[in-house]
Amino acid sequence: MRPFIDTPVRLASALLVGALLVSGCSGSSDSQASAGGDVLNSDETNGTGEGAAGEMDDGTTAGGAGETSGETGGEGSNGSTSGTGQGNNTDVPDPLAQTMIAVDFAITVPSYVSDSLQVRVAWGDEDIAAGWVGDEFWSASADFSSNTENLLVVTFYDGNGAIVLGRFERIYKTGTNGSEIFTINADQFDTDQWDDDNDGVSNLDESIAGTDPSGSARVLLFSETRGYRHDSIDAAVLALEELAASSGIQTTRADDSAGVFAETNLARFDAVVWVLTSGDVLDADEQMVFETYIQAGGGYAGVHAASDTEYEWPWYGALVGAWFERHPEVQSATQDVEDGMHPSTAHLSTRWTRTDEWYDYRTNPRAQVTVLLSLDEDSYTGGGMGDDHPSAWYHDYDGGRSWYTGGGHTESSYAEPEFRAHLLGGLRYAAGLDE
Predict the structure, then answer these.
(1) Calpha distance 420→186 (Å, rounded)
(2) Domains in the chain and their CATH numbers?
């Protein structure tokens, strides 16, 4: 005689087999992954199962209405599947996995003139070089471990890293969000302790490796107008002077061509920047002098309305690249960065959105120049050039260098760090410093 206890054991075994057929035959990776975890009750697999097998009149077992993280219903003993899957397939993050956070550093260093400055950011095992934005502004970006604490050290160097001008140190613990911005101001740098020659004067307060003004580049800032005169000209000229000074470039202003566009005078300059000029500004003799200057290797940079200048001088039209045609009202628009290696665009990401007056041009200059930026006409209203709308470019022309940007109508443009860096890169390129 068999023991009485065997019958419930066999019944329990049958029920267990049926349950396994319901919950274990779907091939779901989530079900398989949960095999080693704790199961809270007999109906749950991965915490969401609700489909117990039911017995049919003919003795077969119907599949449960499976809701086990995307499973189909359990397979019945007759091979049929009657359940329907309604899972969400949501991945459960690994609580032990180290997540990362994007940290952007906005750094303003103490004022110091040199052409060999560097800024480096060190945190834990990370050591990255910051990029120069313009003036005293530098920036750096890196992915750091989230919720982690290390000593942050930001060092300001001259002599391409050989001379310390100042240092910022602070314990920095990253957060748990996706990104953070860390701002450092000039007065937060410790500069007094750095005195390499031990003369009691800090490295910052004496030019140890600075630029020799006698050997620095010279640029003429030319802003004469015979047509529309922009209110932003003064802000533009001042910004260019500040940017030039931060790069060790000497500048001279000229709001009239008389006596300036003479052969012996122009020969003193590495580049001439046409700052929002307009109309017919040079006479025939001055035009010939400027052509000779470019042919001898001189540089040209044009800002905004420089393309609204000298319409009757074909040589100039080819130098600037294209003449102005029309513009809609001032508004925000997005430019695509087509060349991220040029010094005037290297600081930008792939898309650059800002507010300005956006020019249409009489012709598309693309065939004659290297396009740096192009406007996305879907991002603003009133554009008239279509899908191919260059807005900044450069090229070699007739023996010299030419760089042009359509931006700079508004006075506020010249206070924008990214636009200032754009101008500085064009200035340096035109002067032959970053070719």
Answers:
(1) 19
(2) 6-62 (no CATH), 100-205 (2.60.40.10), 213-430 (3.40.50.880)
